[in-house]
Amino acid sequence: MPSIEKVSAEKHVGDATVLAYHKGHVFSGGIDGKIKIWDNDLNLIRSVDAHEAYLYALTVNSSGKLYSSSCDGSVKFMQPPYDKVEELLLCDDAIEAMCCEGDTLYIGDEKGLVTNWQDDKMLLKYNLVEEVKSLAAEKGWIYTVRDWDVVVSELLPGKSGKYVTRAVLDGKSPLCLLGPVLTDRHKYLAYPDRTGKGLTLVKNLLAERFSIAWQLPDCHEMIVNALCGDEKFLYSGGYDNKVKGWTDLDEEKPKALGEIDLGSCVNCLCCGNDNTVYIACSDGIIRRAKFL
Length: 292
Description:
Elements: E1 3-7, E2 16-22, E3 25-30, E4 34-39, E5 44-49, E6 55-60, E7 66-70, E8 74-78, E9 86-90, E10 95-101, E11 104-109, E12 113-118, E13 121-127, E14 134-138, E15 141-145, E16 149-155, E17 163-170, E18 176-182, E19 185-192, E20 199-203, E21 212-216, E22 224-229, E23 234-238, E24 242-247, E25 255-261, E26 266-271, E27 276-281, E28 286-290
Antiparallel strand pairs: 1-28, 2-3, 3-4, 4-5, 6-7, 7-8, 8-9, 10-11, 11-12, 12-13, 14-15, 15-16, 16-17, 18-19, 19-20, 20-21, 22-23, 23-24, 24-25, 26-27, 27-28
């Protein structure tokens, strides 16, 4: 049966909004503008005043550099041991989504502009027109979503900032890549359906034409606003205060692993080690759960 293994003794003031995980460190951000760094067991290592407004996104590159964005239009970063905050970018647009692929950073804003960065220098801009609420990137493809369509775009080589749209799928934010990595890509892409209460899993291969592996309509009572997954598991959470786990992703219908009622809106999920999932809620508390 799924259970909560650990609960943070300290919490954010107000909602905990975002999470990231990297090599035994859990990072959380909230509407208090703080980033908190925890160990695997949610013992607080450090709390940093990173932003003056609430955090939209956190992501970590392969070197352990942590990037954060806020509704104040800034992107900042910290490097281990995470005791100094530096500014990468300040703009007039809200940056709601970020992700790292290796050491490459991708940033998506409310006007649909996606930029990629290496060594903290911007390389190219891609104008995808629609607000980017959730973002992933993998091997020259970027995955973006707002409220109605999940869009898969292939970035064209060179310095033009051009791209080709490979798929437009019915769905809404958030999205995540998961499953085993085949031919350098994750096998699956997951996201809520357009009602927001169901889940869709598609095959993340161009040869499969992003065909639907399975759909779970109305698997949550209210809108799903948090997803994460690894090689074997998918986790979902939302406004119904529940986190649910799913496995047997290769079957026509996944196996439900049960649910945990947090008593508070689930804002973000991220996978940790040993089949664990970390949960950020509107009560400001960070929790670690295990479904097997």
